[in-house]
């Protein structure tokens, strides 16, 4: 069992006497605060904070982090107010404690939301002080070590959360030793039988492997000695979870994975690393395509190493990692290596990258609509596989595997992402949805008037791209809903012979209070989104007494609302009848969707047509210039070249074919289904006339689906 005296002894290696005294003072304060509290295992609660501090001591973290480790559960579990802690230990330590503490006094809709809110709060504290996450990871690691006293279902839940969030964060910050131990403990908690089975198999195989490992190690050392290079060489043990993941993901058997031997060579300098690589390629045959240079292009978490796969004379696959002592420290301790090795400068590659990532969390948090959405974005960015692409000026950009040109555009800058319209990959035009590959050069084409497309959400990968697109669409939808709601309310008021100027401010305040809205814009947004009926709001604004009745039929007057076709997300055109300019139209107010435009004779709005609270009679704006989709069914002969004639006729009519399919009726006749983009009924009539001039076309029908969903 750890003691404060043993910890103090360890701290003399790198902390001053006064700093150790402050750590001890924090321990005794926590011990008093947790007096009488016990863990599930029956041990005194103070054992846990002391163990967390011991984990941080292995990283040589500073005295403030160790004090926060001692006190990290005091605010949450003992009722000591934050102000009292600040008075005793100062603001820095208190902020660290507060960042690590979980929220307790707020009601949440669900357990998932509570966990997401906790993580969101922790991320905000991380952005202020990176040590928060180091204390939190040490806290979680000790909790994982002591899972045995919990019920199996709770063990699995905590282990799953650790595997989903905390282990990837440890990896993202380069804390390899923490990540590996977490994954091993999670694997054992979630799949105890699988873990035990692999453990026994590895133990059984180890005996056969010793001789092979010693033989390969001797060969490597001899070659390095011949080359005059000094370096440490040792065999790498494969971890159980790593073995299990490869078996699951790569569908390999245990024997396939155990047949690959891993070695690490730690050199004195970067120059020696490349010399060793040459020596190894001279000793064993390299496997083509299996060499990776993470020294020239480090991983996102700052990891640097040369990776190569070789085959020895007996046909045994050998994986070798070559790195310097500094890279070894960075690989194992990540951002904590900054404290562990007391570097004077804070500009180490890993530290900079970690801070950049934590700062990017702030942007994700700002754009996220909810804590759960925020965690979803962060999870995406925690996936360890990366690709490296270049900007036209040669700058290297790191992106998650599977990223597209839109992800790249948002990685460059939010405005570049919002305004991108096309891209060039290695100087060739490519779709924005194209998956990027390592080493490609990406050029983004932008336009000032462009805006994000909702369809991008179907293929973007990065959290930054996803959150920015959602945030833009959310903002755009609000402004469009406000504008439409204002027009609908003004129309409803004018039908009653009134305007907004006729309504006094006090009455507006009364209606806002009733509808639980803060501003008139919020009310307009609700109306535009279809959540409230404009005629009812018009009456409520005009009369103080709810029981006063007005003629609802008066709303169906001749002053129809004009549709421009550019209203955006809150006005949509029904697929059942595909209205185009020139068709008589009405709008069905649909909750959450805003205004759905139908033709007046569409069967899907028969039940609403005479209800002014559900339907708005509309007209087309005279200046309309948008294009609309219309479906045609063309009956024609089966002859060679007729589809080419159809395409030419549509082109001559200045329309555009969006989709075309052909159904053969018999050897002589076929039916062609066309989806065309046209500007209105006149344009459609002109197009149909062109199609009728084609030899072999017998009949053309505009398709409507009156029984389809809206």
Automatic annotation (TrEMBL):
Pfam families: ACT_4 (PF13291), HD_4 (PF13328), RelA_AH_RIS (PF19296), RelA_SpoT (PF04607), TGS (PF02824)
Gene3D superfamilies: 3.10.20.30, 3.30.70.260, Beta Polymerase, domain 2, Hypothetical protein af1432
SUPFAM superfamilies: ACT-like (SSF55021), HD-domain/PDEase-like (SSF109604), Nucleotidyltransferase (SSF81301), TGS-like (SSF81271)
Top-tier EC class: hydrolase
UniProt keyword annotation of Ribonucleoprotein present: no
Annotated metabolic or biological route of this protein: Purine metabolism; ppGpp biosynthesis; ppGpp from GDP: step 1/1
InterPro entries xrefs: ACT-like_dom_sf, ACT_dom, Beta-grasp_dom_sf, HD/PDEase_dom, HD_domain, NT_sf, RelA/Spo_fam, RelA/SpoT_AH_RIS
Reaction(s) the record says it catalyses: guanosine 3',5'-bis(diphosphate) + H2O = GDP + diphosphate + H(+)
Alphabetized UniProt keyword annotations: Hydrolase
Domain of life: Bacteria
Limits of the HD domain: 45-144
EC nos: 3.1.7.2
Domain TGS: 385-446
Similarity-based family: Belongs to the relA/spoT family.
Functional note: In eubacteria ppGpp (guanosine 3'-diphosphate 5'-diphosphate) is a mediator of the stringent response that coordinates a variety of cellular activities in response to changes in nutritional abundance.
Name of the protein in question: guanosine-3',5'-bis(diphosphate) 3'-diphosphatase
């Amino acid at each position: 069992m750890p003691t404060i005296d043993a910890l103090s002894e360890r701290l003399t290696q790198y902390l001053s006497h006064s700093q150790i005294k402050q750590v001890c003072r924090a321990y005794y304060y926590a011990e008093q605060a947790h007096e009488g509290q016990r863990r599930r295992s029956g041990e005194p609660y103070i054992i846990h904070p002391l163990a967390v501090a011991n984990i941080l001591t292995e990283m040589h973290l500073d005295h403030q982090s160790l004090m926060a480790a001692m006190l990290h559960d005091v605010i949450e579990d003992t009722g000591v107010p934050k102000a009292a802690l600040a008075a005793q230990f100062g603001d820095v330590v208190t902020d660290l404690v507060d960042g690590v503490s979980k929220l307790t006094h707020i009601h949440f809709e669900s357990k998932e939301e509570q966990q997401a809110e906790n993580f969101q709060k922790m991320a905000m504290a991380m952005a202020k002080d990176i040590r928060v996450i180091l204390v939190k990871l040490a806290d979680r690691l000790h909790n994982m070590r002591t899972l045995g006293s919990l019920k199996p279902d709770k063990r699995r839940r905590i282990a799953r959360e650790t595997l989903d969030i905390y282990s990837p964060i440890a990896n993202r910050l380069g804390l390899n030793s923490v990540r590996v131990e977490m994954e091993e403990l999670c694997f054992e908690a979630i799949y105890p039988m699988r873990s035990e089975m692999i453990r026994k198999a590895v133990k059984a195989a180890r005996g056969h492997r010793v001789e092979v490992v010693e033989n390969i190690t001797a060969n490597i050392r001899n070659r390095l000695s011949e080359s005059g290079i000094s370096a440490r060489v040792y065999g790498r043990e494969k971890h159980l979870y790593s073995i299990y993941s490869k078996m699951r993901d790569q569908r390999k058997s245990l024997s396939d994975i155990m047949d690959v031997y891993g070695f690490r060579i730690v050199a004195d300098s970067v120059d020696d690393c490349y010399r060793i690589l040459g020596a190894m390629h001279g000793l064993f045959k390299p496997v083509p395509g299996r060499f990776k240079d993470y020294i020239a292009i480090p991983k996102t978490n700052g990891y640097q190493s040369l990776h190569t796969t070789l085959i020895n004379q007996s046909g045994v696959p050998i994986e070798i990692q070559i790195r310097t002592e500094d890279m070894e420290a960075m690989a194992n301790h990540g951002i904590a290596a900054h404290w562990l090795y007391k570097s004077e400068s804070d500009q180490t590659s890993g530290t900079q990258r970690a801070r950049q990532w934590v700062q990017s969390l702030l942007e994700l948090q700002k754009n996220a609509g909810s804590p759960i959405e925020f965690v979803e974005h962060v999870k995406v960015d925690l996936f360890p596989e990366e690709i490296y692409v270049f900007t036209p000026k040669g700058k290297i950009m790191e992106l998650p595997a599977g990223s597209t040109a839109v992800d790249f555009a948002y990685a460059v800058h939010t405005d570049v992402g919002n305004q991108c319209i096309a891209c060039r990959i290695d100087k060739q035009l490519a779709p924005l949805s194209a998956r990027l590959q390592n080493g490609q050069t990406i050029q983004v084409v932008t336009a000032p008037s462009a805006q994000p497309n909702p369809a991008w959400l179907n293929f973007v990968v990065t959290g930054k791209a996803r959150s920015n697109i959602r945030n833009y669409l959310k903002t755009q939808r609000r402004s469009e809903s406000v504008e439409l709601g204002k027009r609908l309310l003004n129309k409803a008021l004018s039908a009653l012979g009134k305007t907004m100027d006729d309504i006094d401010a006090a009455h507006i305040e009364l209606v806002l209070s009733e509808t639980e809205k803060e501003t008139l814009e919020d009310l307009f947004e609700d109306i535009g989104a279809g959540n409230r009926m404009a005629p009812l709001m018009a009456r409520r604004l005009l009369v103080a007494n709810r029981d006063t009745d007005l003629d609802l039929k008066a709303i169906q007057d001749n002053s129809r609302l004009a549709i421009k076709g550019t209203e955006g997300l809150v006005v949509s055109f029904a697929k059942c009848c595909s209205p185009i300019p020139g068709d008589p139209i009405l709008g069905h107010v649909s909750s959450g969707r805003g205004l759905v435009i139908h033709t007046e004779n569409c069967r899907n709005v028969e039940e609403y047509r005479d209800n002014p609270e559900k339907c708005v009679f509309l007209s087309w704006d005279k200046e309309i210039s948008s294009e609309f989709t219309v479906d045609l069914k063309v009956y024609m002969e089966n002859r060679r070249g007729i589809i080419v004639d159809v395409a030419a006729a549509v082109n001559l009519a200045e329309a555009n074919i969006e989709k075309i399919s052909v159904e053969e009726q018999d050897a002589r006749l076929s039916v062609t289904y066309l989806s065309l983009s046209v500007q209105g009924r006149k344009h459609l009539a002109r197009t149909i006339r062109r199609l009728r001039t084609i030899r072999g076309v017998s009949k053309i029908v505009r398709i409507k689906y009156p029984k389809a969903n809206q």
